[in-house]
Amino acid sequence: MYPSRFRYEAPRTLDEAITLLRYGGDYAKVLAGGQSLVPLMKLRFASPELIVDINNLPGLGYHRADPDGTLRIGALCRHVDLERSALLASTQPTMAAAAPLIADPIVRNRGTLVGSLCHADPQGDWASVVLALGGSVIAQGPGGRRTIPVADFVTGPFQNVLEPDEIAVEAVIPAAQGVRSGGYLKLERRVGDFATVGVAVAVESSGPTVTRAGIALTGVGGSTIAATAAAEALVGQPLSAPAIAQAASLAAEVARPRTDHRGSAEYKRHMVATLVERLLSRSGGTAERAA
Ligand SMILES: Cc1cc2nc3c(=O)[nH]c(=O)nc-3n(C[C@H](O)[C@H](O)[C@H](O)COP(=O)(O)OP(=O)(O)OC[C@H]3O[C@@H](n4cnc5c(N)ncnc54)[C@H](O)[C@@H]3O)c2cc1C
């Protein structure tokens, strides 16, 4: 099917893009990688009257670390940039594990991490990763910039808190307070598929003691789920077998899977516990498909 008719604008400055969005209101949409928006438009699940293509905006393709270790990912940083990133490979085990598991190489060439957060698909992998890492989104609108924790950014499936005239310009991952470990595991029916179950684990440790932990779940509820109690249960002690088993069980409890053609709710809940246990049992996560 072809999309409905729309007006297309490709501004060259952020101010111009925001002005266009203000003019378009609820009928305007930002286009980043287009890997979620374009399929939706072709199916006519989305019929924006104005597309504001941000691909000509300069200086948004970066990902870089501040001197204190804070990681910043610009709105036009593609999945493939993160997949190939030496910075992520050396400093961000959870992100480095997830990047090669997003979709397929064609989608990874165009799609963006920030676009994935904005799209707020319960099966989006990056939202779990950024949630587990305690990250935020920086939005820019006519009134300036504001920082929104990812935990507050998504309000439901395919919904976020951005105003119609705001652009998400950057995702931010805070610096680790200790040694970082963790990973991302994804159960999928075939390579490149969306997650049947995905689990992101991010752990920070000082010596053997866990100082911070984040666990988030993909595809097992109406939106990305933060397994907060599971993560908090790990803090202040070493990653012992009983601590890991308790966290796995608490994470499975907050999953809200539904039975469908990918598996029963019971099976998916079991897989949440299995993947949490597997990730925590390793010293550092690596990219691995669970199926
Ligand atoms: C075949 C296929 C398989 C896929 N498999 C997976 C998968 O396994 N895992 C996964 O996580 N994803 C998957 N995806 C989705 C993919 O990761 C998308 O790239 C991502 O969801 C959206 O990023 P984008 O840059 O393409 O955003 P777009 O498609 O351009 O936009 C998506 C939505 O976010 C909004 N938006 C985008 N950027 C901004 C911004 N900077 N500010 C404000 N609003 C913005 C748009 O207006 C739109 O509503 C798949 C997609 C396809 C086509």
Describe the structure concisely for a colleague.
The protein is of the alpha+beta class and about 290 residues long. About 35% of the residues lie in helices and about 25% in strands.
Please describe what this structure looks like.
The strands form 4 sheets. Strands 4-5-10-6-7 form a 5-stranded antiparallel sheet. The chain has a 5-stranded mixed sheet with strand order 14-13-12-11-15. A 3-stranded parallel sheet has the order 1-3-2, covered by helices on one side. It has 291 residues and is α+β, with helices and mostly antiparallel strands. The protein has helices at residues 14-24, 37-42, 79-83, 86-91, 93-98, 105-110, 113-119, 125-132, 150-153, 228-232, 241-254, 265-281, and strands at residues 7-9, 28-31, 50-53, 63-65, 71-74, 136-141, 144-149, 154-156, 159-160, 167-173, 179-187, 197-206, 209-218, 225-226, 288-289. Flavin-adenine dinucleotide is lined by residues 29-37, 39, 75, 102-103, 107, 111-112, 114-116, 118-119, 121, 124-126, 162, 167-168, 194.
**What would CATH call the architecture of the largest domain?**
2-Layer Sandwich
Strand order, largest beta sheet = 4-5-10-6-7
First-last Cα distance: 33 Å
Strand content: 25-35%
Main beta-sheet annotation = 5 strands, antiparallel
Number of structural units classed as domains: 3
Number of beta strands: 15
- Provide the gyration radius in Å: 19 Å
pLDDT under 50 segments (min length 5)?
Answer: 284-291
Bound small molecules, by name, code or SMILES, are: flavin-adenine dinucleotide
Strand/helix succession = EHEHEEEHHHHHHEEHEEEEEEEHHHE
Number of helices: 12
What is the fold-level CATH name, i.e. the topology of the largest domain? Uridine Diphospho-n-acetylenolpyruvylglucosamine Reductase, domain 3
What helical percentage do the residues reach? 25-40%
Structural class label? alpha+beta
Mean pLDDT: 94
Top CATH class of the largest domain: Alpha Beta
The 3D shape can be described as globular
